[in-house]
């Protein structure tokens, strides 16, 4: 039996309900932050005896899918929390009802032509572990509408139709900036989160400097080092060093 003792977050405003959406299926509900577009609302474990079974960044990277998300296993069901600011727990950690398990954010695919920003994607899944392909970011089966299980479900504001308008000016990494963005993220120059529209531009600028000046120098130094090494080896071999 599914019994939720806590809501997943304080806000009760549901901006996108469970069900068909934009030609696909929305396997959960989207809950707005308390203050529009502001990250950081606490996310709570919704029932007793939770165990973290997934805690990861979406397979396609921090700008895709659910971004930073976790799945908590309860007795007979699972809860998924998408688009978190970061990951607070490791797989295997135990969490109690009402415990803060993360913070509402806008990682993942929250920026799209449909226009959504900071929010919690909350999914509820029936069943037992093993019946769900949780390792795959897309193929999660057994989703059910969580709203009837919330305390005071009547307080949820459910719009009659999608798409949902809102919240935050869209910040996306443009295609022309993608290479620079991925490079900067993989080399640790940025954290992969899109904080402002200036950020992708800055990364492009740094990337171009790197390509034009630093990379050729690094390559040249490497060549010289190799050459010196070969000379040293030859000298050693000849007993001259
Ligand atoms: Zn959603």
Structure description:
The strands form three sheets. Strands 1, 4, 6, 7, 8, 9, 11 and 12 form an eight-stranded antiparallel β-sheet that branches. With 241 residues, the protein is α+β, with helices and mostly antiparallel strands. It has two helices and twelve strands. Helix 1 (178-186) crosses helix 2 (198-237). It has two domains: 14-155, Glucose Permease (Domain IIA); 171-241. Mean pLDDT is 82; it is low at 158-170. Bound molecules: zinc ion (ZN). Residues 16, 26, 28, 30, 121 line the site of zinc ion.
Assign the CATH class of the largest domain.
Answer: Mainly Beta
Question: Biggest sheet, open or closed, and with what strands and sense?
Answer: 8 strands, antiparallel
Query: Share of helix among residues?
Result: 10-25%
Question: What small molecules does the structure contain?
Answer: zinc ion
User: What is the 3D form?
Assistant: elongated
CATH architecture of the largest domain: Distorted Sandwich
Rg, alpha carbons: 23 Å
CATH topology of the largest domain: Glucose Permease (Domain IIA)
The domain tally reads: 2
